[in-house]
Amino acid sequence: MSARLGIIGAGAWGTALAQAAARAGTPSILWAFEPEVAKAINETRENPAFLKGVTLDASIHATNDAADLSACDAWLVVTPAQHMRASLEAFGGHLKPGTPVALCSKGIERGTLKLMSDVLAETLPSAIPAVLSGPSFAADVARGLPTAVTLACTDAGAGEKLIKMIGSASFRPYLADDLIGAEIGGSVKNVLAIAAGIVEGRGLGKSAHAALIARGFAEMTRLAVALGAQRETLTGLCGLGDLVLTCSSPQSRNMSCGLALGRGEALADIMAARNSVTEGVATAPAVMELAARHGIDMPICEAVAAIVGGRASVDDAINALLSRPFTSEGA
Ligand SMILES: NC(=O)C1=CN([C@@H]2O[C@H](COP(=O)(O)OP(=O)(O)OC[C@H]3O[C@@H](n4cnc5c(N)ncnc54)[C@H](O)[C@@H]3O)[C@@H](O)[C@H]2O)C=CC1
Ligand SMILES: O=C(CO)COP(=O)(O)O
């Protein structure tokens, strides 16, 4: 019998990953938070709430019962970062010790400033932790368009097992061992994508957009290295790769949020109009608290945190960035 994958979270990304697993020949149990989402997937082979228009493979079985995951050989966790702790706590009794658990969400827990791997270690300490992150829109992966991501795991055997379960010609995980680098890359790029959207929405031009990506990458790398990551990780798929994707396409929820802010819409109105998650909004203040704790200068992320926190208008934040003293590029 082929290995079975458990997936926690049936939003766009969890559902797309179930499709990727199906393409790799791996059947999956997809746990949905909402009963109507599980019902729709099982009865119509579609997830109309979060991934409309994609016909889901017959090997994907949706459930609302956490106990159904106990028979799975590996788990992917794809619940929004701010709900990660509560979700994992609910699954505590159902994990076989030594099961590989790949964290696929991108964010930092507010209040505790914990990375998702810290939350996993505290809630399911017997799991083998991994992080899956990279430039990968759910809609692209679900359609089978070519995609490459980082799969970080310090246990190479467990990492290879996960890659075998989800990898295919079109969905290509690259093995790495730096979880912190992968997590900071995925978390900070969402904050920077809001900034990139603001640049576009305010009509600041492509030169400003490119400068933002380069200086944003420097901020992301500084924080990651201060937290113990390897600098090279950030130059890979889960760092620069995802930063370029998310800062370049309004298909990104974070960039589209920034676009709307740049055009003058209020954050509360933007959020009220969507049922999907925009991780950068909650991650921005958490990133700034982490940066302050480690003495790291992150002016672009600080501008985003001030805007989403209601402490600065878009124009004031832009002016503050442009008034900074000239400095050396390596600083
Ligand atoms: N959509 C994408 O293209 C990608 C998303 N991700 C990451 O995956 C994570 C999940 O995002 P999506 O699947 O896009 O979500 P989504 O925006 O499609 O759906 C929202 C999700 O939040 C869940 N949810 C709402 N309230 C909840 C609660 N109280 N407890 C638990 N779950 C709750 C919903 O059930 C649903 O699964 C995020 O961290 C995101 O950054 C990563 C790569 C690609
Ligand atoms: O992480 C993503 C692509 O890699 C998806 O980005 P958004 O959450 O901004 O849509």
Kindly report the spatial arrangement of strands forming the biggest sheet. Answer: 3-2-1-4-5-6-7-8
Briefly note the CATH topology name of the largest domain. Rossmann fold
CATH superfamily placement of the largest domain: NAD(P)-binding Rossmann-like Domain
- Strand segment tally: 8
Give helix % range: 40-55%
Large-scale geometry: globular
Strand content: 5-15%
List each distinct ligand once.
1,4-dihydronicotinamide adenine dinucleotide, 1,3-dihydroxyacetonephosphate
What CATH first level of the largest domain would be assigned? Alpha Beta
String of helices and strands: EHEHEEHEHEHEHEHHHHHHHHH
Structure report:
- The chain is of the alpha/beta class and 331 residues long.
- It has two domains: 173 residues, Rossmann fold (3-Layer(aba) Sandwich); 144 residues, N-(1-d-carboxylethyl)-l-norvaline Dehydrogenase, domain 2.
- It is built from 15 helices and eight strands.
- It has an eight-stranded mixed beta sheet, with helices on both faces.
- Helix 6 links the parallel strand 7 and strand 8.
- Helix 7 packs parallel to helix 10 and helix 7 crosses helix 13.
- The longest helix is centred in the middle third of the chain and has 23 residues.
- The model has no long low-confidence stretch (mean pLDDT 97).
- The protein binds 1,4-dihydronicotinamide adenine dinucleotide (NAI) and 1,3-dihydroxyacetonephosphate.
- The site of 1,4-dihydronicotinamide adenine dinucleotide has 25 residues, from helix 1.
